[in-house]
Known about the structure:
Layout: H1 3-33, H2 39-60, H3 66-83, H4 88-112, H5 132-135, H6 139-142, H7 146-152, E1 165-170, H8 185-192, E2 197-202, H9 208-221, E3 226-232, E4 253-256, E5 259-262, H10 273-278, H11 284-288, H12 294-311, H13 323-343, E6 348-353, H14 356-363, H15 380-392, E7 398-400, H16 402-412, H17 414-417, H18 427-445
Parallel strand pairs: 1-2, 1-3, 3-6, 6-7
Antiparallel strand pairs: 4-5
Amino acid sequence: MTARLAAELRGLASVLAPLVCGLLLARGARRALGREVGSRARALLAASAALVVGAALLAGLPALGVWDALTVAVAAGLGVWLGVGPHAGRGLTRVCVVCALVCLVLEVAARQAPRSARRLPGGEAARWLVPFADRDAPCRGMFPAEAYWSERDPPAAAARGALPRVVHVGDSMVEPAFVDGADGFVARLDRGDARARHLDGGIQYASPEAYWLFARQWLAHGRVDHLVVYLFAGNDFVELDRGYLCCDGGPIVAWEGEQPRVACTAERVGGRAVERLATSPAPYLARTWSSDSALAERVSTDLYAWVYPLLMPEAWDRLSDGVDERSARGGRLLGAMFAEVAARGVPATIVVLPYRPAIARAAGVADATFDVFAGLDRSAVEAHGAMVRAARATGHPVEDAWDVVLEAVRREGLDAIFLPGDVHFSPRGHEVMAEWLGARMGARWRGP
C-alpha cells in the first residue's frame, strides 16, 4: 500500500468511523429501549450527540482543527440520527449514495473550473493534529524549535561556514509561496553566489512586527553578516498590530505613545475562539485527498482564503485610518527595529517589493486580482511610494524593486512574472529578483 493511498484511507476513516460508531451506539440504545423514537426526539438526540462530541474533541485535543472537530461531530450526529430510525441500514445507504453523487458533481465542476495557482504537498504529508504554532506560520520563526534551524540553516552547509552569512527576512514573497522552494530568489542567490551564504528567514503570513522577532532570533542563533528585510507593499502595513496565536492571540508590539517595543518575548499559546477557527486547517479528509481530487484540493487550499476575511474582517480594515497614517506607524516600527539591529553592529538593507495591482495599473494592464487599497484614500501605487518613504526615513539603505518588476512585466507579461491571478512571484519572477538583487547588492554582502 502506498503512502498516498494509506493517507486517503485515513481521511475516509476520519468521517466514516464516527458515522458508524454513532449509528451502532444509537442502534443498540434503541433496541434497549424497545420502542420507536419520534422524529423530534430523534433530531434532538442527533444534535445533542454532535454537540457533546464536538465540545469534547475541542476541549480534549487543542491541536485538532475546528473543521475536523465539526466534521467528526456532524458525522457522529448523523450516525445517531440514522441509528435511532426504523431503517438504519437503508438510511446509511441513501446517505452514502447521495454524498457520493454530490461529491461527483462537485468534482466534475472543480475540474472544469480554472485551476488555482496554489499547490499543496502530497496528501500523505497531512497530519490530523496540527499544533497552534503550525497554524499561525510566523510563530515558527518567532519562537523557533531546533527543527526550524536544521531546515533553514542546515548542518550540511557547514563547509561554507566561513563565507559571509546573509539572512533574508520577510513574508510569503520571500519564503516562496506556491512554487518550489528551489525556485525562490533566496535559493537562487545561494546557488549562484560562491562568496556568500544566503539563508531564507521568510515565513508566510508574517507582518513587520514578526520580522523584528525573526531578526532577533537569527542574531541570537548565529553569525549574521548582513540582514535584508523585505517589505511587501500589498499588506505589510495593513497587517500591523495583528494578533498571533503564539502571543496569546494578541499583537507582538506594544505602543508607548509613538514608540513601539516588543511585548511578546515568550511563547503564550492562546487566542479567541474565532482565531482558532479562522486559522484551523481544512478537514483532514480534504487534505489527504488533495493530491488526487480537484475538489479536495480546492477546499483544502482555499478554505483559509474564504473564511479568514469573514471571521476576522478587521484584518482587511487596517487602513481605515488612512494609508499615510499606517505608513508613518510602520516607519516608526522599522526605525525601532533597525536601531536594535544596528546596535548589534550588523549592516542591514530594506527591499520594498511591489504589489501586483499597483504594477498592473502602472503598466496599463487590465487585472482582476483583488486590490486591498480599492476605495481607500490612496491607490496601491501611492501606497507603494508611502512605504518606500517610510523605509528611507530609517536612515538605512533601501532598494525599491518597483522599476525592475515593472520593466519585466512590460517585457514579458503580468502572468509571466507573477503567478496567474496571484500577487506572488512566479518562478520567472523569482529569477528576475535574484538577478537584480545580486547585481544591486552583491558588493555589500560578498567577501573578498
